[in-house]
Structure formats: structure tokens, C-alpha cells
Model the fold of this input.
Amino acid sequence: MNKELTWKGKLLTHAVLLAFSLLMFYPVLWWIGASFKTTPELALPTLFPKKWMWENYTLGWNALPKYTFTYFYLNSLKLNLTTTVLHVISASLVAFGFARLTFPLKNFWFSVLLLTLMLPAQVTLIPQYSMFYSFNWINTYLPFIVPSAMGGAFFIFLLVQFIRGIPRELDESAKMDGCTWFGIYWRIVLPLTKPALITVMIFSFIWGWDEYFGPLIYLNTMDKYTLPLAVRMFMDTQSAVAWGQLLAMALLSVLPPVIIFFLAQKHFVEGIATTGLKG
Done:
């Protein structure tokens, strides 16, 4: 009797979870279907079109003057791969210093690092823009690349918590074998922080890929535009917006971060779940 109740309870639980999953996934299904519709058909309460407009993707890909979406894809890939690599390298180095080394005012500087997480981006926008303008960095990728070489407060904090969970006995053993601090960082800490590093990579890439406000402020010419700006420009190039083509390009623009997340999902979950708990 208990087994039957348990089986029925599991079936009911899975049915409820499936229903909620379909409810959450419905907007995505509508988005996919709408990317194949004509503009008049978007007003109809149907999930999928009567006639599939596959040309929405080809026309949308070549809709902007002089540039195809291949160009903007490459811009986004080059910029985000660069910033992601710099985030991982710099954040891991700074985090190793905070977690393992002893230096003057260490706790004070770590507190300052955490305080920067509480500052809204709007507070620093005007000073940053003035500084980058004086450096002649406007309409270049330097306002994104150079700050990423500083690590990023959130990524540093995440890695510090993870590294603190690695037993210090490993450091002492490495020192006895003649290993330097950099050797400990490179040969011991980095391999053991792989899940956290992958978490940093995923966050950095997705946040950079989806960023719209920063490129809107610092990039002025179309040859520098990333995908979010290109999708927005798509609306400005026509008096009557071809919404099917716009939705098709928006759908293609979100595929890379979704693919990366699912490929690295195991390491991502492990990195989040074990941060500050290993040891």
C-alpha cells in the first residue's frame, strides 16, 4: 500500500513539475513560432504559423545595410572571448592573493572590493565615461577589455570563497618541495578550482554577450556594433518593422550562451554548489 502511494505521489509530483515546465517554456515556444510568421499573422492567437516563413532568417540575416549578422556575431565573439579569458586570469590571480597571501591592509582592501559590489552602475557611469573619453577610448573595445583585466569584484569574491576551501596543507607540501607561490597557484590551486573557473567563464560570457547598455554608450559606428545593438538597429532601418525577421535574429542571437550553458551545466552547478564548502 505504501509503495502504491509513493508511486502515485511521484507521478503527481512529476505531472505538476511538467505542467509548470510547459508553462515556463510557453513564451519560448511562442518566440520560435513567431520567428516564422508574417507580421499580420503575429496578431493571431496561434502558437505556430499556418505557413512557415523560412525566409525570415535569410532576409533578416542580410537586412542591415553593408553588414550581415555574420559581422556582428564575429564582433561579439571576439569581444566576449577576450573579456572572458581576461576575467578568468585576473580574477583567479587576485582571488589567490586574498585567499592565500598575507599583506598589509588585506582585510581593508577586501572590504573595499565588496563595497564596489553595492555601487549601482548608474553611479559610476558618468565618471567612467569621462575617464574613457579623456583616454580616447570611445568607439573602441577598450572600455570593456581593460576593466575585465582587473578581475571583476563578483568573480574575485566567488573564487576567494572557493580557494579558501582548499586545504592549506597542500600549500605547505608544495613549499617543502621548493614550489613558489606562483607555482602553487598554477599547479595546485587552478586545477582544483576548475568548477569555479568554469562558473566565472559562463557568467562572464553570458553577461558580456547580453550587454546592451555599455555598447550603446561607448560604441558609435556600426562596424564596432555587437549583436544586441545590431538587433536594435534592425528596428531603425525600416519604417514598418518586419517583426518576423527581427524575432528570428533575436532568437539566433541568444543561441551561443544557451549552448555554452548546457554544455558546461555540470561544472556550473558544481562550482555554485561547492563555493566555500570544499575542504
Remarks:
- The longest helix spans residues 2-34.
- The mean pLDDT is 87.
- Residues 2-58 form one domain.
